[in-house]
């Protein structure tokens, strides 16, 4: 039997749909889920929008008067007969399947919204790449010119910077493969699967980028002083950061029976991906806060003029900006990982991740940049205090955070240097 999948049947408007009708959130969830299932089960039409593929199923169901069969679906749309049987089963059988396709294609489709993706990823990537590259260049020049050489934690920051650029480049491709549309029924399965695959890669890669940036800061604090509370705090935070990164990678690799889970829509994943991503993001925010407050007691212990103490606190407190970006990213994961016509896009999550990673690098470079400014404009900036990153000691040694040796309020001597060898 030849079945026409191109021409729509002559149907009038459904009298049961009132004027001003809007699709309910519950129906929207079902339509978006249907678009995913139909798209993944129709390889013969993977380059057509899933909304158009649903219409083809509706034409087929109408032509056969609801007598839909798995062999027909396999022949016309391309899945195996086993996959076609699964597709009919999740809709409650052939009759219910046909009714659902007809209802979506002819009753509900005219009322569906068609939101577009925000054009933010590419501009953010370009802007932050330029800014962060400039800041990192100043940081390295400061270490070379003022501190006497580039330190290991600087090289680790360079690794974090390179990984951040790579992550942003993948996010730009993610923006491209997602097309301009947000809703699943406005995309082809080729674009949907490509977007899921790219976002999966970004999710796995994110943990390792964040780990490199955090470890550079932790190594900086470790070499900054020999105070036990800081060093033990660095050990504990490093353990949490590394453990979270390894755990996150294992979760993403083992969450579903197949790594490429989007190619097996009939399989149930072992882990709720959204909840797992939120837990991992929350753990990284916790370590962000720890790294932010870690040097604060050291600043209060040193004998400094009030203005110097204030500027030192400001310098080290810039990390709070990255913490705020991390919190916004967590909120975007919660909002934009849901199935709805307005929030089925993960590009906003990409955008906030680009902001978070770059701000972490920029804020961690602030002490070195300030030291460079003081070095080249001492008459203007030296009066602002010398506790930022480096100053020249009486012996001519370089590389201290503030002064080579700071006195606490109790009179104890605290070594505060970027290089324990000195």
Automatic annotation (TrEMBL):
Residues 395-411 have a biased composition (Low complexity). PANTHER family: INTEGRAL MEMBRANE PROTEIN-RELATED, PTH11-LIKE INTEGRAL MEMBRANE PROTEIN (AFU_ORTHOLOGUE AFUA_5G11245). It comes from the Eukaryota. InterPro entries: Rhodopsin_dom_fungi, SAT4-like. Residues 138-373 form the Rhodopsin domain. It is found in: Membrane. Keywords: Membrane, Transmembrane, Transmembrane helix. One of its GO terms (cellular component) is membrane. Belongs to the SAT4 family. It is a multi-pass membrane protein. This is Rhodopsin domain-containing protein. Residues 394-422 are annotated as: Disordered. Its main location: membrane. It comes from Orbilia javanica. The chain crosses the membrane at residues 120-141, 153-173, 199-222, 234-254, 278-298, 310-331, 351-373.
